[in-house]
TrEMBL record:
This is amidase. Residues 78-549 form the Amidase domain. SUPFAM superfamilies: Amidase signature (AS) enzymes. Keywords: Hydrolase. The active site is at K134 (charge relay system), S218 (charge relay system), S242 (acyl-ester intermediate). Substrate binds at L192, S218, I239, G240, G241, S242. GO terms for molecular function: amidase activity. It catalyses: a monocarboxylic acid amide + H2O = a monocarboxylate + NH4(+). Its EC number is 3.5.1.4. Belongs to the amidase family. It comes from Penicillium subrubescens. InterPro entries: Amidase_CS, Amidase_dom, AS_sf.
Length: 566
């Protein structure tokens, strides 16, 4: 009889240890129906295992929760226990957690309650708010595997390293200072370089709204957990779309800030030292205002004094007030805002649900009286080539090393190829080409000032996050809709729009183009995609986080009104 590979045994043991960390009282007694019988496990399905009080707490957004916990109306312990319970259920439904440390979280919550009882004030603006973390961030007492079997029981693959379970990432330190309660770490694809979440520890993380589909990646566990309201908000990272894709696939908001705004110091990563396109930290949440709360709170900790790559750029209330004044003037008919809209990039034709989502956005903008400009930028194929070269500059050596620690297999969905590393001359040429492309795009954006009627270039760009809604497993082949933003280092917010509907989203918007061999067209099955979340992204220029968050909150609400009116 064949002996099972040691890495499989090790992965299975780790997977079981995660399940064993769930308290017995929260374990599901009966098996969950298969996805062919029950696609959607959000809302009423998961609610059946919760009390009315737990539902009230866990279905409040981060802003409302913080309003209760920072004033003592809700205890940190009660809120933490409710989210721990719901997170435990979420993992059993879609396999979205890598690390569970509920006991430590509840002890921390008790300390927060004791502090409030003594001082009658919160520790910080996130006092008592549970926050989930992508499994790149080190937390004391907790392992970080980042999906690699070879990292189990080590510090990033290094055995007997004193930092094992003692290190904390800078973001973690700042969240603790703000009063947040940390209680779980979420699943990622090994390497982080995939739009799906799969690894040899927890297997595949499924989409809670349609378990035939992917939750996205690489912050996929965050997306799935928050979609199930097992977390009110969490932090992921984004190098090619890894915050925005899971946000869009799970009907959430997600922020990809420009590099230099959020602290990455002390977090695990793939290809550490590759700086042509930097990975950035960003929040995910069900509401745009929750993103603002987390982003603004972290900036209040002055991360530029603790991470050498963070810019000394505090939260800018003046920008928010200016954008809000523009919005109010537009509502009064005194002025207008202007937006670009890109229905497709000339490379990958989008599926019918995405095309409909963009039409809803355009209808909303026009209903509000805003100027809409159809986007004709420098070729996105150039951005795709630059991104591919940057992500593969070491010939896959880094990820091959980490897979080699255990001898485990590499998932087919990973976009890193084995090859030859580039030379210093080639690296310099790549960086020059990136800079030249950034300048071309800047010039194009500036040129729209002659079309907007406002005297300034477009205030933002709406475009797809992917050619498809939450994707069929192993069918995510094109990341160009998100990765161009990373090449440009622009700010982008994922905005939820609607859900795929097999009765509406039947035919390609332009069958003649979709069938052309010159364009990419991915598999579309209206029945399989039915119920999948449809999101878009609102893109701004570099370091425009305050502006984009303010616009995302305003326009996200208006998009919802358009959908509800249909």
């Amino acid at each position: 009889m064949a002996t099972e590979s040691p890495w499989r045994v090790q992965g299975e043991a780790k997977r079981q240890s995660i399940l064993d960390a769930i308290p017995a009282k929260w374990r599901l007694a009966d098996p969950v129906p298969p996805p062919t019988e029950l696609r959607d496990v959000t809302e009423s399905y998961i609610q059946q295992y919760l009390s009315e009080r737990e539902i009230e707490i866990t279905e409040s957004d981060a802003v409302d929760i913080a309003a209760q916990t920072t004033t003592g109306r809700w205890s940190a312990v009660e809120v933490t226990e409710a989210f721990c319970h719901r997170a435990a259920l979420a993992h059993q439904l879609v396999s979205c957690l890598h690390e569970i440390f509920f006991d430590a979280a509840i002890e921390n919550a008790k300390k927060l309650d004791a502090y409030f009882a003594e001082h009658r004030r919160p520790i910080g603006p996130l006092h008592g708010l549970p926050v989930s973390l992508k499994d790149q961030f080190h937390v004391k007492g907790v392992e970080t595997t980042m999906g690699y079997v070879g990292w189990i029981g080590t510090f990033q693959g290094k055995k007997d390293d004193p930092r094992f379970r003692t290190e904390e990432s800078e973001l973690v330190r700042e969240l603790r200072n703000l009063g947040a309660v940390l209680y779980c770490k979420t699943s990622v694809p090994a390497t982080l370089m995939s739009g799906e979440t799969i690894n040899n520890i927890i297997g595949y993380t499924w989409n809670p709204k349609n378990r035939l589909l992917s939750c996205g990646g690489s912050s996929g566990g965050e997306g799935a957990l928050i979609a199930l309201r097992g977390s009110p908000a969490g932090f992921g990272t984004d190098i090619g779309g890894s915050v925005r894709i899971p946000a869009g696939f799970n009907y959430l908001y997600g922020l990809r800030p420009s590099s230099g705004r959020m602290p990455y110091q002390g977090a695990a990563n793939s290809m550490d030292g590759q700086s042509t396109i930097l990975s950035v930290v960003g929040p995910l949440a069900p509401t745009a205002r929750s993103l603002t709360l987390l982003f603004k709170s972290v900036l209040s900790q002055q991360p530029w004094y603790h991470d050498p790559l963070v810019l000394e750029l505090p939260w800018r209330d003046a920008v928010v007030e200016e954008i809000r004044s523009w919005i109010e003037q537009a509502k009064a008919g005194k002025s207008t805002l202007a937006f670009g809209i890109m229905h497709w990039d000339g490379i990958a034709r989008v599926h019918p649900p995405i095309a409909r989502g963009l039409r809803i956005v355009e209808q909303t903008l026009k209903r509000l009286g805003h100027k809409v400009i159809h986007w004709s930028p420098p070729s996105h194929a150039i951005a795709g080539t630059l991104g591919h070269q940057a992500f593969n500059m070491d010939g896959g050596a880094d990820v091959s090393h980490h897979f080699g620690l255990s001898g485990e297999s590499k998932a087919a969905q990973i976009i890193i190829n084995d090859g030859v590393s580039i030379s210093m001359t080639e690296l310099a040429a790549l960086n020059i080409a990136k800079r030249e492309y950034q300048k071309q795009y800047m010039d194009y954006w500036n040129s729209t000032a002659g079309l907007t009627g406002t005297g300034r270039p477009v205030d933002g760009l709406f475009c797809p996050l992917a050619p498809h809604a939450a994707v069929i497993p192993n069918e995510y082949h094109y990341v160009g809709y998100t990765s161009f933003v990373n090449v440009l280092d622009y700010t982008s917010v994922a905005v939820p729009v609607t859900f795929a509907d097999k009765n509406v989203d039947v035919h390609p918007a332009d069958a003649s183009v979709a069938e052309s061999a010159e364009h990419i067209e991915w598999k579309y099955d209206a029945d399989t995609y039915h119920g999948a979340p449809v999101g878009v992204q609102l893109v701004g220029r570099r370091l425009q986080e305050e502006k984009m968050l303010t616009l995302a909150e305003y326009l996200g609400d208006e998009i919802s009104k358009t959908v509800q009116a249909k």
